[in-house]
TrEMBL record:
Coiled coil: none
Protein species of origin: Tessaracoccus lapidicaptus
UniProt lineage: Bacteria, Bacillati, Actinomycetota, Actinomycetes, Propionibacteriales
Protein name: Methionine biosynthesis protein MetW
Database matches in NCBIfam families: metW
Amino acid sequence: MTPKARRDLWLISTLIPEGSRVLDLGCGDGELLRLLQRKGCSGTGVDMSPSNLVAAMRSGVDVIQLDLDRQLGEFADDSYDVVVLSRTLQTVRHPRHVLQEIGRIAVHSLVSMPNFAHWRNRLRLLSGRMPMSKDLPFEWYDTPNLHHSSLPDLEPLFSGLGMVIDTRIPLDASGRPHRLGNLAPNLVASSSLYLLHARR
């Protein structure tokens, strides 16, 4: 792992086969795609932030500006091997539609999302305060997050869209696989990473 690499992005990079064609939706400054270049992967990043787009382009990552809710139809069926949606699903207006498009664009996908039901978030709610954490670092009035989900709420959405969970990796607040693994993940995981495949 490079010194500055976000731990969860490094983990995602280890799950993507060498030489894959990767579409990274909500790519930020292109950090994941830079990691994947070392594995011979080709990729495209998508983001809406002008500063992220400029940073990604300056680092040699191919990026385009698209609205994930409305413009994923620009990508053809099965045009990529893997689609990544890391900590982005909760920020889109229509998560169900975005997941449907992901399953159309590639058979395999990696999706991660903060777990709103983490025990620290529950304690904040019991104290009368909205949750804040490393995975939910915003005040209620300036958060980009439109949807909050627990793992038992999220996983039926995948299955209802014909997306099979091959692997679930509960993560701690630092983005590492949680030491308790899949023991009570809805309580202890700060976020969760899913390796999925779309039924064809």
